[in-house]
Amino acid sequence: MINRMVFKVIVLSFILMFSAPAFAQDENLPAPFSEEEALPDAGLTPASPFHVFERFGDWARLNILTFGSTRKAEVKVRIAEKRLAELKAVVEAGAESSVVESAEGFVNSSTASLQNDAEILDARGQDASALIEKLNSLSLKQQTVLEDVLERAPEQAREALARAIENSRKGLEKAEEVLGRQVERRLIKEEKAGEILEHSIGRLKKQIEDRSEKIKEIAAKGEVPPEVQTAFEEKLRLLEDRLVNVQSKEEFKETRASIRESFKDAASSVLELRAEHKLRDEVSESFLKDVERDRLDVAQKAREAIASAERAMAEARTALTRAESAGKTISENVKELLRTAEEHLKKAKEAFEAKDFGGAFGQATSAFRNASAAVKSITASVQSQNLRTGEVKPAETGAVRPLPVKTKPVESRPVSEVNSGSANTSSVPSRVEVVFTDEGFRPNEAKVQKGGTVVWVNKSATAVWPASAMHPTHDVYPEKGGCIASAFDACRRIGPGETFEFKFDQVGTWKYHDHLNASMFGAIKVAE
């Protein structure tokens, strides 16, 4: 019996050797993170066959060597931070996608455990403020670390990182949800709730401002990976949602008064960033301006957002009916956008009836965005089909300015001569259209006369950014200007249904790419 116990102690001690070093790294703060975003040493990662021993060592440390709910929560946070460090390490090491996905799964399960603990404490009627603070802090740390890794991650790792970022957002939402219930049942004092909310929103605001600067640095060098841009936009919405929820929930009514100035400051920051990055959203901006001016009526804003969504839906349905009646083909993706918008609008009305004005506002905003995107896509599709058949009547929705000239069919073939102006120009048009679809630019190579204009029409479900920027695959269009180096640069995201045009005065074959996704590229051949 004694020998068996000694054997167990030896085995346990051996296993704990694997996990102990990471717990001893608290004072090592790896750049570029601040103390709040510092991580322990990754130690063994899922890429190692011995990682199972490290996980078992963490389990033993938590369940055998740690006593008391407070101390256990602290150990769980450290384990979650270790898992985050492991995910960062395997991505930076260029591990296979299966290893990255495994590491992502461990990050998510460790975070889910803390969320579950917060729910349990709340269900027992106990003060969960300490655990809510830890969950908030962990989720925000995950946001910063994962976003930093995402911009340098290889293609095969980005999907898993995007999922991990989304789950970290859910951690923030769960912490806020539990906090609201705790305040409502008076398990947490208003003053403490205000401190938690103010710190969370202030830190989230700072992270967004830092990401904005980082994205501008990346853009100045050439490419902003689409996942990085999407993560930034989603983070803006995350902060907006936090402001909406706190401003609209009855349980936070007294708390709001104590942190009003912090909220106004956060609203101002989001408005500035939306304008700076050309991410305009009239419904969100209207809400933020009222927060900034301290005159917010959430119920009224929800009512207005629902009305805006209904108008956008009506416009989209009318556009679809007219297009199909005229014999135009509208893609199933556009119809799916409409169905999604209808579902969001239905939920918005249900939430409004239940006096969940914050929820109603959020759902109505989503409905408005989807319906507006559908209108743009329908308009672009009608314009494109009209141009192909020689019709140049404006699309009846009027959402996008129609292209005024007819376009001749464009020859499409591989580029054989780069920067060579020699070509048979007898049938080269002075104005052509290039359509951007989910498959890329069509035609992939277009011919235009010197001094002629090329018009890009975005018929995809995502934004596009045609640009002749610095890139290993092609030379820069020589005219100076634009926002980086070449005049041939849209300098903005061209949304679904929108157009961009550029006049070419330099003879040659000029390759370009989608600045948001460099794997999408095309070429414009300019002839005398």
Automatic annotation (TrEMBL):
<dbReference type="InterPro" id="IPR043725">
    <property type="entry name" value="DUF5667"/>
</dbReference>
<feature type="coiled-coil region">
    <location>
        <begin position="158"/>
        <end position="249"/>
    </location>
</feature>
<dbReference type="InterPro" id="IPR008972">
    <property type="entry name" value="Cupredoxin"/>
</dbReference>
<feature type="signal peptide">
    <location>
        <begin position="1"/>
        <end position="24"/>
    </location>
</feature>
<feature type="domain" description="DUF5667">
    <location>
        <begin position="43"/>
        <end position="156"/>
    </location>
</feature>
<dbReference type="Pfam" id="PF11724">
    <property type="entry name" value="YvbH_ext"/>
</dbReference>
<protein>
    <recommendedName>
        <fullName>DUF5667 domain-containing protein</fullName>
    </recommendedName>
</protein>
<feature type="compositionally biased region" description="Polar residues">
    <location>
        <begin position="417"/>
        <end position="426"/>
    </location>
</feature>
<feature type="coiled-coil region">
    <location>
        <begin position="299"/>
        <end position="354"/>
    </location>
</feature>
<feature type="region of interest" description="Disordered">
    <location>
        <begin position="407"/>
        <end position="426"/>
    </location>
</feature>
<dbReference type="InterPro" id="IPR021722">
    <property type="entry name" value="YvbH_oligomer_dom"/>
</dbReference>
<dbReference type="Pfam" id="PF18915">
    <property type="entry name" value="DUF5667"/>
</dbReference>
<keyword id="KW-0732">Signal</keyword>
<feature type="domain" description="YvbH-like oligomerisation">
    <location>
        <begin position="309"/>
        <end position="361"/>
    </location>
</feature>
<keyword id="KW-0175">Coiled coil</keyword>
